[in-house]
Amino acid sequence: MQITKAVIPAAGLGTRVLPASKAVPKEMLPIVDKPAIQYIVEEAVKSGITDILIITNRGKGVIEDHFDHAVELEALLRSRGNTEMADAVAATAHLANIFYIRQRQTRGLGDAVLRAKQFVGKEPFAVLYGDDVIYGDDPALGQLMRAYNIYGKSVVGIQPVSEAQVMRYSSMKLSPLKDNYFEITDMVEKPKKEQIFSLYSILGRCILEPEIFDILETIPMGAGGELQLTDAMRVLANRTGVVGVHFTGKRFDMGNKFGILEANIEVGLQHPETRTQLRAYLKRLAGELE
To answer: Who contacts 199 (Cβ-Cβ below 8 Å, separation ≥6)?
Structure first.
């Protein structure tokens, strides 16, 4: 079954990147010359998604503006003969059918996804976390879609992380299926050390069956007093198992100051307009640090 709908939760307050996120949503912080959320939308589109619901909250109208036409700017660029840049600016308004809904209270990722129930209907759908940019030649979501087409059940994108990170993220109880696919039968959000199943965590991507909404409506609040999506996925894992895909691609945590720096350096080293200068600068800087 072709999955065509995706949800991007982008309602977080961005407290880890204050004071920048006081005025600019963390999803709009740039990676070289595009805001972080554009990389996420482009990944979804490359994977075959046509309809995207972005979950926002107060103060994030700039996200909607970015994926709309900037008529005056486009006209100005064309009048100056900069057709290539005008086309690039205009293209953001045609990436996909993008819709928006507000999470009126910040009550967790599970609550944000629950806002998408009417948009999703009875179809399986993708979730791309608004904090996580995954950069690579093979779109991470596309890798999960291939696994869904094989196994026909919910899929999560996973990678191994450090013990300190797993205690901030989630931990998977898993066993190998084949290649980079795993069967997940249990998971825990923000585990204490004695609760860790493995050092594999869900990192930013999943494909869910619509029954997740019924689960989200019945489970209690979880870690941090919030409705946790991981807790709902745990119910799915206990019932039927969930497939984990150890995806390829470099993940950048855009809700983290160092993650933002990493993203700009690594993408900048591949960007045709910056790679030569940045490489030379980093080599010179490395010499000064010795």
So the answer is: 160, 161, 162, 163, 166, 171
Q: What's the rounded Cα separation, in Å, for the pair 128 and 141?
A: 8
- List, for residues 173-214, the tens digit of each pLDDT value: 999 999 999 999 999 988 999 999 999 999 999 999 999 999
Distance (Å, whole) CA 69 – CA 100? 16
Tell me the Cα Rg of the chain.
Answer: 20
User: For residue 154, what are its two tokens?
Assistant: 């919910």
Helix (H, G, I), strand (E, B), or coil: what is residue 177?
strand
Which residues pair with residue 172 across a beta bridge?
187
Which segments of the chain are extended strands (E)?
A: 5-9, 30-31, 34-35, 51-56, 97-102, 125-128, 132-135, 155-160, 170-178, 181-189, 200-208, 242-246, 250-253
Cα separation, 134 vs 128, whole angstroms: 10
